[in-house]
Amino acid sequence: KQLVGIILHMLKDIYNTTSNLETALQSNSVHILTRSFDPYQEMLETLETPEDKVDFLFQLIKLYVDDKMTLDEVLMEFEQIISSGETV
Q1: What are phi and psi of 87, to 5 degrees?
Q2: pTM (two decimals)
Q3: Torsion of CA 20, 22, 28, 31, to 10 degrees
Q4: CA–CA gap between residue 26 and residue 59 (Å, rounded)
Q5: pLDDT one-digit tens code per residue, 45-62
């Protein structure tokens, strides 16, 4: 849970930094990470997220990145999926 929280926090910072750089440079093609690397997808695959939960977790991550959910709220949702007996 803590590791997922650290990763989500770092990814949110990367997303915000990229957005700020795109605005400052008036460009839509600023990439801090390589285009072929999707950190959210990699994290969910590493956690062996069940296919039927991937879209739901992506939506939670997006809400967190957009400041519509707190990190604690997202982690509670992740934890509920874990405690329901599914592998995350």
Answers
A1: -85, 120
A2: 0.73
A3: -80
A4: 28
A5: 888 888 888 888 889 999
Please name the residues in contact with 71: beta carbons below 8 A apart, sequence gap of 6 or more. 5, 8, 9, 64
Q: Which of 36, 33, 9 is nearest to 21 (CA)?
A: 33
Confidence band, pLDDT 50/70/90 cuts, at residue 83: low
Distances (CA, A) of 54 to 19, 81, 87: 24, 11, 12
Greater model confidence, 64 or 52: 64
Q: Which two tokens stand for residue 9?
A: 């926090």
DSSP H stretches of helix in the chain: 2-25, 39-46, 51-65, 71-83
Taking CA atoms, 24 is separated from 8, 9, 27, 32, 35, in Å, by 24, 23, 8, 15, 20
Q: Which two tokens stand for residue 28?
A: 């839509």
